[in-house]
Structure formats: structure tokens, C-alpha cells
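Structure ticket #2291
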Amino acid sequence: MASEPVKISLKLRVFFSQYWNIWDMVAILMFSTAVGLRMYDETRKAARILYTLNIVFFYIRILEILSVNQYLGPYVKIIGKLVSYGVKIGKIVFCLFVFYTFFFFWGGGWMILEKSFKKKKFLLFFFFLGGGGWNILEKSIKKKKKQYSSWFT
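Resolution: structure written out below.
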């Protein structure tokens, strides 16, 4: 028959022997740190980052708790498989990105990209979709010393 440990050190060893308890402690410590950092204006941005990381821990823990549920358990398993497939596809996409980027720059693609940045069509596209295109447009026009309406032609 097994008995519970009497000493606090043995209790802590049993508690931290389980994987989820370690991550729960990390999440609680991160949350406490974020609450403390939120009190000062200088560290409020760091607190938001810690809150964002913390919510990831809590979402994963909630999914682990829901996996025991009779109705929600199969859905959690499906979500886990979808995420694992997404990670596999992400690795393939990253490898393709590195491969194509290498050949793009090796084959003189940088000059093509630089020329396309200077074209007026690209500036219009960036103005409508990029949000900050007007500043780039003004800088390029000031460099060329033309009128503001010259980019229409």
C-alpha cells in the first residue's frame, strides 16, 4: 500500500514529477509577473507580452482538461492532429521558402526586386494595401523633384 509523503520536500518532488504541474507553475509565475509589471507605465508593454504568452499556456491546459470529457475529448484529439499536420506543412513551406529565396538572390533577383520598388505601379499598390504608402510616395517624389500629381501618369 502506498502512502503519501510526509516531508514537504518529498511532496514537492511528487508534485513536480508530473509534466503538467511544472507548466502550471510556469503559467502562474508568468501571470504574477505580468500583474506586477502592469503596475508601471514603463513595463506595460512587457506585461502585455507576458499575458499573451500566458494565455497560450492556459489554452493548452484547458484543452488537456477537456480531453477527458466524453463529448469534447474526440474534438480535442482532432485539433491536436490538425495542429501536428500544420506543423509538418509549415516545415515544408519553410524549406521551400529558404530554397526559393536562395535562388532568387543568387540569380540576380535582388536587382529585379529593387527595380520593382521604384515603379509607380508598385507605389500605388503599396499605397492602397500597405497603409504607409503615402510616406514612401512623398519621399520618392521629393527625390525626383517632381509635382505631387506626377505619379498618376
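Closing remark: Residues 117-153 form one domain.
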